[in-house]
């Protein structure tokens, strides 16, 4: 793998140069960005997946939804539909994409829409829903919209400062674009992370004076759930159950389950994987399937005995207070 990445480095340099020119064009005003007279909060990353973007978006939604009319706008990656789609009672995972559909089911009081054209999507959301705050999911590199606040995520043990541009690495944007973030959140940290280690990471990231740095960990539920809403303690998972993951970095989940002493057979698929008919038939032969919440929305209607393990973001130290204060400060700059 290392040899392949070295071979691909020249391609990364070329791709990185193209991205740099694109960003330079936006910085100089050669390409236009649209601003809105309402709070638009962008949550994203510099790499392709694996930073905990979905649970962080859910975390921010929980912080705001009881105070404001919140809407979520996503691209809807790998959905079957085109253009703008507003989730409704008859919404299906195929037309929204797995993550927006998961969000819609968890937050019935938050409007959810998908549109690859974020500018048009925001305009249509405002016309149809008139939200007070819009969360832009996975749009850090989408510079046609100038958000009011940027939350940049980077994963513990896989910081963007240690990565390189695609295809030799996993970065889809250049590292210097991190300077546009208002808050940088290091996700997937150990729950008992020390302040000295936080300081070491701060020294590696070197946030700008205007930026605030927070740390977060994954908080796993004590129970797993099926489509009927029935729950089972993790200790009730039978030996050699089949763990199915279609996420970018399943390692934290594997470490969590291993730490509980569970025995399972892991079936790993690419991120946002659309399961084939043959794969579904194979999974139907399994006695017990455990999966992620994102994969569950694509598997629940096709498997009889399938459960998912919910996760949430838990901010470490003063992270919740810092993030909340920044969000409220930004929102307070607008006349709602």
Automatic annotation (TrEMBL):
Entry GO MF terms: ATP binding; lipid-A 4'-kinase activity
Pathway: Glycolipid biosynthesis; lipid IV(A) biosynthesis; lipid IV(A) from (3R)-3-hydroxytetradecanoyl-[acyl-carrier-protein] and UDP-N-acetyl-alpha-D-glucosamine: step 6/6
EC class: transferase
Protein origin, superkingdom: Bacteria
SUPFAM superfamilies (UniProt xref): P-loop containing nucleoside triphosphate hydrolases
Listed InterPro entries: LpxK (IPR003758), P-loop_NTPase (IPR027417)
Catalytic activity annotation: a lipid A disaccharide + ATP = a lipid IVA + ADP + H(+)
GO cellular component, one term: plasma membrane
This protein's UniProt keywords: ATP-binding, Kinase, Lipid A biosynthesis, Lipid biosynthesis, Lipid metabolism, Nucleotide-binding, Transferase
Record: residues binding ATP: 47-54
Stored Pfam families: LpxK (PF02606)
A single BP term in Gene Ontology: lipid A biosynthetic process
EC number: 2.7.1.130
Family, similarity comment: Belongs to the LpxK family.
Role summary: Transfers the gamma-phosphate of ATP to the 4'-position of a tetraacyldisaccharide 1-phosphate intermediate (termed DS-1-P) to form tetraacyldisaccharide 1,4'-bis-phosphate (lipid IVA).
The protein's name in its UniProt record: Tetraacyldisaccharide 4'-kinase
Organism (species): Robertkochia marina
Phylogenetic classification of the source organism: Bacteria, Pseudomonadati, Bacteroidota, Flavobacteriia, Flavobacteriales
């Amino acid at each position: 793998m290392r040899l392949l990445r070295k071979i691909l480095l020249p391609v990364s340099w070329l791709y990185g140069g193209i991205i740099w020119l694109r960003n330079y064009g936006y910085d100089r005003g050669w390409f236009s960005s649209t601003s809105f007279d309402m709070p638009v909060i962008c949550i994203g990353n510099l790499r392709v997946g694996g930073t905990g973007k979905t649970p962080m978006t859910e975390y921010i939604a929980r912080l705001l939804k009881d105070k404001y009319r919140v809407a979520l706008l996503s691209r809807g990656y790998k959905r079957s539909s085109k253009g703008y789609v507003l989730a409704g009672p008859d919404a299906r995972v195929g037309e929204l994409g797995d993550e927006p559909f998961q969000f819609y089911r968890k937050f019935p009081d938050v409007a959810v829409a998908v549109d690859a054209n974020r500018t048009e999507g925001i305009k249509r959301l405002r016309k149809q829903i008139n939200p007070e705050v819009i969360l832009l999911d996975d749009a850090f590199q989408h510079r046609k919209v100038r958000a009011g606040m940027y939350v940049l995520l980077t994963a513990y043990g896989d910081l963007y400062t240690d990565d390189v541009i695609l295809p030799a690495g996993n970065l889809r944007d250049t590292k210097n674009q991190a300077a546009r973030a208002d808050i940088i959140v290091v996700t997937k940290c150990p729950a008992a992370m020390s302040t000295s280690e936080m300081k070491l990471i701060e020294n590696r990231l070197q946030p700008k004076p205007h930026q605030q740095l927070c740390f977060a960990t994954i908080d796993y539920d004590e129970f797993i759930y099926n489509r009927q809403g029935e729950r089972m303690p993790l200790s009730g998972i039978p030996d050699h159950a089949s763990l199915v993951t279609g996420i970018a970095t399943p390692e934290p989940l594997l470490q969590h389950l291993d730490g509980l002493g569970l025995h399972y057979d892991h079936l790993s698929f690419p991120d946002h994987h659309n399961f084939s008919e043959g794969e579904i038939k194979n999974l139907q032969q399994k006695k017990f399937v455990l999966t992620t919440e994102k994969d569950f929305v694509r598997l629940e209607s096709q498997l009889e005995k399938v459960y998912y393990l919910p996760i949430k973001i838990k901010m470490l130290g003063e992270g919740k207070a810092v993030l909340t204060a920044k969000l409220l400060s930004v929102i307070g700059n607008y006349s709602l």
